[in-house]
Each structure stands twice: as structure tokens, then as C-alpha cells.
């Protein structure tokens, strides 16, 4: 079992009569990319600011790399790289000066900083812009520069609040690839987003938060199984659609057969309750019955399906 790198117990934050977080218990293991998802106002940013020691909880406790966010704030700050959802940049600095300035804030020696700045710019693909002024960068480039800033002191943990917010598709892909590269370097990454497809493509674990409560947490595959009580199989045929539909309805473990909405190619959606062996047998018998099968694929719930089911209280 991997060690917990981030942990919260009973974490609560109130603003007057508004409760932003309530009794949040969360564990993030070392080396994972943990996607923290939820609607606006769910408590994502509040949680991240507490973990970054920028906000004190009303009640409860949290630890990052074993350090208390209440009692060991300096140690926590040295262990994390924090990229907020809204950040400021010094536009009248050159790109390399900007990184050099923040490296100096972490007391990195001048002799070390030159090579470090070069390495960081290479990592975020900004080496060719090192002598440009920060104000001349696009929003996506500024995002990558701020991520490089968060890495200046080689933290164990990265806390990234909506890193792809407001970016065009190409820039979102670049941020996604950077996250993958950072995980390969051994970083633990705690990332929030409301863009569910972005989270799904990079994260190993997911936490869903709603109205300050953690609704579900775990590996995405585990949560898919939780919301998908029955298997869904897509069957494509080149003909005999109605005959195949009638045949399938009469088979063991088949609960429902429906045409795929908006599909003009003869695809059917089969709700199936059997195991793998039964699914293989169904395909074999379907082909053996003479139906022209060109597609037979089990569908899985995507993160959007999981999110909608869990936040609507369909699964307890």
C-alpha cells in the first residue's frame, strides 16, 4: 500500500452561515494524479487553499507529506508547488528573470539558478521565449510559466487549481501532457477541474465533491463499476437489424435491446447482466445465427456519467 501524501480529517470551513467544507475526510496516495472534481462552489478551491496554507480551516486538520497545515506551515510550503486558479504575473520581467526571481525566493543559490531556469523552461517548452517579456506570452504560455514557477524548488506535491481554465484546445493538450510528464518524474499531483474530459484523460484517482461533502473517491474504474450495475454492449450490423434485435431480446442475460440514438449504421445497444464467458458466448451465437456483425464492443461509463449519477444521489 502506498503512503498517504495528502490527508484531511474532519476538515471544515465556514464563512458566517455559509459552510464551504463540512467534515471532509480525504486521502491522496504518493505518486498518483488525483482529480478533484465538482461544480462551481462545491469546495474545491477552499480545500486547495487550506492545503496550501493560505486559508485556515474552521475545524479539522490536514497534513501534506506528514506536515500539519496548522502547525508546520513553512514545511508544507517547501513540500508543495501551488498553482492557483487565478494568478498574477510580473509582466515587465523577462521570462527567465521571472523564474530566477521565484527560485531566489526559495533561497536557491545564484550558481544553481541559471541551470535550473534553463531546465524548467525546457520542461514547459518555453526555452525559445526566455528573453521575451512575460506580458508578450499567450495565456497558455503564461499557464506553463506559472507551472514552471511552482516547480522551482522541486516540490514533492503539486496542487493545481483549474490549470486548463480558459485555455484553447491546443493549450489544454499541452497542460495535459505536462501533467503526465510530471507524474512520470515521481510527483504527486492534486488537480481540480470542472472540465471532466480533461481530468479523465490524466488522472489515476478521482474525488467528487458536492456542496462541501466528498461524494465519492477512488480509482475511476472502481467508480464506473459502482454506477454501472449492468454491462452495456454496442453491436453493429450491416443488415437484418430488426431480426437481430428480436433474436437478442430472447437471449439469456439480455435485459434490454435498443437502437443507438442518432445512429444510421444499424447499431444496437444491449444491456447485459452476464459475466465475460456469457458475453463471449453471446457473440459466438449471434455470429453463428448468421447475423452480419461488424462491431461488438462493451461500452463503459465516462467520468461525466459517473459524476451525474453520483451527484444526483442515484448511488448511495
What this model shows, in words?
The protein has 316 residues and is of the alpha/beta class. It folds into 2 domains: 4-224, P-loop containing nucleotide triphosphate hydrolases (Rossmann fold), CATH 3.40.50.300; 229-299, Alpha-Beta Plaits. 36% of the residues lie in helices and 29% in strands. It has 11 helices and 14 strands. The strands form 3 sheets. A 6-stranded mixed beta sheet has the order 6-7-8-3-9-10, sandwiched between helices. It has a 4-stranded antiparallel beta sheet with strand order 2-1-4-5, with helices on one face. β4 (59-64) and β5 form a beta hairpin. α3 crosses α4 (110-123) and α5 (139-150) packs parallel to α6. The mean pLDDT is 87.
The stretches of 5 or more residues where confidence is low (pLDDT under 50) are none
CATH superfamily of the largest domain: P-loop containing nucleotide triphosphate hydrolases
What name does CATH use for the topology of the largest domain?
Rossmann fold
Q: What can be said about the biggest beta sheet? A: 6 strands, mixed
Helix content: 25-40%
Distance between the termini: 26 Å
Q: In CATH's first tier, which class of the largest domain applies? A: Alpha Beta
Amino acid at each position: 500500500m502506498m503512503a498517504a501524501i495528502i490527508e484531511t480529517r474532519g476538515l471544515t470551513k465556514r464563512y458566517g452561515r455559509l459552510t464551504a467544507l463540512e467534515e471532509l475526510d480525504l486521502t491522496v496516495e504518493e505518486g498518483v494524479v488525483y482529480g478533484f472534481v465538482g461544480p462551481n462552489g462545491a469546495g474545491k478551491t477552499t480545500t486547495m487553499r487550506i492545503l496550501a496554507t493560505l486559508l485556515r480551516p474552521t475545524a479539522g486538520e490536514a497534513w501534506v507529506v506528514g506536515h500539519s497545515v496548522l502547525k508546520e506551515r513553512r514545511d508544507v510550503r517547501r513540500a508543495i508547488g501551488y498553482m492557483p486558479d487565478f494568478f498574477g504575473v510580473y509582466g515587465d520581467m523577462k521570462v527567465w528573470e521571472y523564474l530566477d526571481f521565484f527560485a531566489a525566493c526559495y533561497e536557491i543559490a545564484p550558481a544553481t539558478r541559471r541551470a535550473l531556469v534553463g531546465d524548467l523552461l525546457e520542461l514547459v517548452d518555453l526555452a525559445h521565449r526566455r528573453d521575451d517579456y512575460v506580458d508578450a506570452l499567450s495565456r497558455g504560455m503564461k499557464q506553463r510559466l506559472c507551472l514552471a514557477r511552482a516547480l522551482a524548488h522541486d516540490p514533492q506535491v503539486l496542487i493545481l487549481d483549474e490549470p486548463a481554465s480558459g485555455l484553447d484546445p491546443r493549450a489544454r493538450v499541452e497542460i495535459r501532457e505536462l501533467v503526465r510528464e510530471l507524474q512520470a518524474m515521481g510527483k504527486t499531483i492534486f488537480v481540480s477541474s470542472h472540465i471532466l474530459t480533461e481530468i479523465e484523460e490524466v488522472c489515476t484517482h478521482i474525488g467528487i465533491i458536492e456542496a462541501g461533502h466528498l461524494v465519492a473517491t477512488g480509482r475511476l474504474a472502481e467508480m464506473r463499476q459502482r454506477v454501472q450495475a449492468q454491462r452495456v454492449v454496442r453491436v453493429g450490423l450491416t443488415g437484418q437489424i430488426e431480426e437481430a434485435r428480436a433474436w437478442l431480446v430472447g437471449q439469456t442475460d439480455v435485459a434490454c435491446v435498443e437502437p443507438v440514438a442518432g445512429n444510421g449504421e444499424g447499431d444496437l445497444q444491449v444491456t447485459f447482466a452476464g459475466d465475460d464467458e456469457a458475453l463471449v458466448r453471446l457473440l459466438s451465437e449471434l455470429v453463428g445465427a448468421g447475423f452480419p456483425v461488424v462491431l461488438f464492443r462493451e461500452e463503459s461509463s465516462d467520468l461525466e456519467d459517473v459524476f451525474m449519477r453520483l451527484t444526483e444521489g442515484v448511488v448511495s
